[in-house]
């Protein structure tokens, strides 16, 4: 494992965090193709008690979400546990706010309450093109509303 003091290591760390952030940003905007595209073609997302395998299965699952579901995912305490030239293992805390009143939300959403807090482990790999993509995303719910 390299030290975090060189530019290449820092670049990998930033790129990994940006990929995770991009995925949840797309998810919150119902851009499910964008969210699933943040995974490798064979990436695994442990979601809702089952493993979603690959971009197509992830996309199919996301397309089943309620059209009136409104979410915001907040990533904090992002830390890289291991990293190499083309692999990063990270962990972070994820807070999720959600609202689904059966109709598109009116902003601001009244009385938001966090729906859950999760500890997440994540692995990413750098593609031949230099893109960092999620190979495994494994949230463990620590608090549920």
Rough shape?
globular
Helix content: 10-25%
> Which CATH architecture is right?
Roll
Structural class: alpha+beta
Q: How would you spell out the order of helices and strands?
A: HHEEHEEEE
Q: Supply the number of structural domains.
A: 1
Strand line-up of the largest beta sheet: 2-1-6-5-4-3
The total count of helices amounts to 3
Keyphrases for this structure?
Nuclear Transport Factor 2, Chain: A; alpha+beta; 3 helices; 145 residues
What do these coordinates show?
The chain is an alpha+beta fold and 145 residues long. It has one domain: Roll (Nuclear Transport Factor 2, Chain: A). 25% of the residues lie in helices and 46% in strands. Strands 2-1-6-5-4-3 form a 6-stranded mixed beta sheet. The model has no long low-confidence stretch (mean pLDDT 92).
Mind sketching the topology for me?
Blueprint: H1 7-28, H2 32-36, E1 39-47, E2 50-53, H3 54-62, E3 70-83, E4 87-99, E5 114-126, E6 132-144
């Amino acid at each position: 494992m390299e030290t975090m003091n060189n530019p290449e290591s820092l670049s990998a760390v930033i790129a990994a965090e940006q990929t995770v952030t991009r995925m949840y940003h797309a998810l919150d905007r119902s851009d499910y193709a964008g969210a699933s595209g943040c995974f490798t073609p064979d990436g695994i997302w442990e979601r809702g008690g089952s493993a979603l395998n690959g971009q197509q299965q992830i996309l199919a699952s996301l397309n089943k979400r309620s059209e009136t579901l409104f979410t915001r995912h907040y990533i904090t305490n992002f830390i890289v546990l291991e990293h190499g030239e083309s692999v990063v293992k990270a962990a972070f805390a994820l807070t999720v706010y959600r609202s689904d009143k059966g109709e598109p939300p009116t902003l601001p959403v009244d009385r938001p309450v966090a729906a859950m807090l999760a500890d997440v482990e994540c692995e990413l790999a750098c593609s031949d093109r230099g893109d960092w993509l999620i190979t495994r995303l494994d949230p463990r719910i620590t608090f549920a509303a």
